[in-house]
């Protein structure tokens, strides 16, 4: 995911998260409860509207059982996204 715009990186991140959730059979209701976010907010994230806070992202990656290498990749993407949006 490196070398892409923050928008594209976020889109790719959510694709991978949705795919992992589907693979594990996790329902949206389980995810929103675990993250303590609304159904509407989660839906917006899945449509590429908004970004998940870093602490919520860590919780989600743990819930979805991503390995350490993948978690670090996502953390780097989140840091890049935050730097890119704070410069504007």
TrEMBL record:
Cross-referenced Pfam families: HTH_31
Q: Which SUPFAM superfamilies match?
A: lambda repressor-like DNA-binding domains
Its domain of life reads Bacteria
- What is the official name of this protein in its record? HTH cro/C1-type domain-containing protein
